[in-house]
């Protein structure tokens, strides 16, 4: 049986405000059920989701082919088309990721702190779900399942705007998830897509303060900027990474070579890959040839400032734009700085405050770097690739927060919760 | 010597964009100094602030008289004029409050969590200041000093928009604070007022994402709504309290009388005072006469629904508006409900999610109330007046957050901080 036999609304047309807000009301009601659902019930639903995805793999791949065909007609880039693609193997990977979430501790109900006041009143702050979590993203059908599963485990209803490019795929994925929710005895409205409401639906979602408790944008810098600027709903920004490594005067050569290569080459397309290398002038002649030589051998294009170019000529000249760029490719900007002050000033100007690392054997400089660099993750003598929820031991990765409110750095399931205070008394009044 | 001998700009005129953003840049530079200032330096500055306020009490009161005279001309309400007034005694109180903050633990540098990974990389999440904290408020000069002192202790620079009604008073207060900062060797720009930039300054402040790290609105529901709607800077909403108490069927009469009277009468003008009483139908005849009788004796006007009015006629009929109103006065709305479901449904519809309390001896109903009521603080058998930073043992009260992101319920100094991750390795790379 097709999961989409009875679509509840036409995929295009004028914005139906009543239907949109009725959907959000349904999400709120579902969120109330999820908030008090125990971990076993939520885990059973996740297992059912994985099962339904695999049971409907043909339908998912067929819907995805329609999206891909339309995407090619519309001239989507090969990178976007690749992210949009779901093969049977990728559906298996998505289902496996859902099962991984089953094994992670449920944050809901965790006691964060508590005390008994002198008058006998007991206070306890416990984790509770946000309620309704919205997500706005682009052309990434795996995010549909990923966010739905993370929201479900943390007791939140999810309202998803996955974008027109993946609309058919997302519709089938959400239908599979909703079928699984029904089997597990949880409300189907726990996970909804609002793609059928088009762009207007996305902008109404951003203004639905009070109905939507949290909004998570995922995708291009432009999409994140739009959501941050236009939302009245609280947003968690998972931003770009213009990540820096500083080679201090005292840096060990072997660590410098290993860490910079690992940070650039192991997976260049992700946000924790290094984009700019800053080298102390007194160490440039010693360190640049082995470090950049290893990178060139791995196929990295070096964008060097004048002083670095003089030491390592197998490079292209860097421009102002290079310092601002998140390459996400085998490219690295390199600059020689006079001292740690200049390195920190460069980072202040160009960093997106994601991750920065210094390679040094100078304790004072290490301490200064840790204290003065205002990024989510600041490292000494380690690869920037460690900024990752799985590496940090969180089990699941909701994203890397580059903002300061609520969550900073890798976010696990607890970051998808709020708290409330439970106060238990026996007739106490305030004196 | 007058603190305002050399005002740096005329108090009115066209918006000077360059001067405004230069001030924000100065705040950012000051924030960097404050971020690494130790507790002793910050406490010394707070002591100097208290000293300077008392040394300039005549000048403060004189400036305040000008604001009050203009306020009377402009027809400000007596409530607003009272909040605007600074007498020598009130200045003493404000200075004492600053000294209280000296005694509170500095949240900056606190280790929140940490672990050593199997590969030897050590992770530590520590509290760091936000950076630049903005505040937008109205006609409350005490908030100027209050926010400045809390920001200073937590290592944040403060940019204050205190509104035109208190502009002269705030200018003198900020000048006194800046003089104290100078004496203590901290940057004067750590605390600034942007009142001279007028309304345009306030709206630029709300859009200064990246330059301002956090915005705290304080004042009327309308002001808070404006800030929440128009800001791109992250906001912490310290909202209104339409606070409920539920008298369950099994409620003890003495607790019901004591708690409702305490919650309404002890200080009716604050956000944790009760505004609506919901009574189980089966207990209304037993409980309403003693509870409402005690309130009438204390001068409370009862706004009763039809069923409550039939039991306790010494009341005025309640209208729909009563359920939505934060009276902040000796008024209480009273409604008889059929059961706990109806009470919880009423709270969901009308509560501002600040604080709700149930008086009951039924364990199942207590647990349901704690689990199903989605407010910052949910109580059993205790007065709603306990929702307070000082009562919770936080030492200082930044406000009561009614939002779910970052902070919920009473906020202490730690809620004015973010965190960052310090990662210490010895050459580790990701495998």
TrEMBL record, chains A, B:
It is an enzyme of class 1 (oxidoreductase). InterPro entries: Ald_DH/histidinol_DH, Ald_DH_C, Ald_DH_N, Aldehyde_DH_dom, G-glutamylP_reductase_CS, Glu-5-SA_DH, GPR_dom. PROSITE patterns: PROA (PS01223). SUPFAM superfamilies: ALDH-like. Keywords: Amino-acid biosynthesis, Cytoplasm, NADP, Oxidoreductase, Proline biosynthesis. The keyword DNA repair does not apply. Catalyzes the NADPH-dependent reduction of L-glutamate 5-phosphate into L-glutamate 5-semialdehyde and phosphate. The product spontaneously undergoes cyclization to form 1-pyrroline-5-carboxylate. Its EC number is 1.2.1.41. The gene is proA. It comes from Gryllotalpicola kribbensis. Belongs to the gamma-glutamyl phosphate reductase family. Pfam families: Aldedh. Residues 26-296 form the Aldehyde dehydrogenase domain. This is Gamma-glutamyl phosphate reductase. HAMAP family: ProA. Gene3D superfamilies: Aldehyde Dehydrogenase, Chain A, domain 1 (3.40.605.10), Aldehyde Dehydrogenase, Chain A, domain 2 (3.40.309.10). It is found in: Cytoplasm. Pathway: Amino-acid biosynthesis; L-proline biosynthesis; L-glutamate 5-semialdehyde from L-glutamate: step 2/2. It catalyses: L-glutamate 5-semialdehyde + phosphate + NADP(+) = L-glutamyl 5-phosphate + NADPH + H(+).
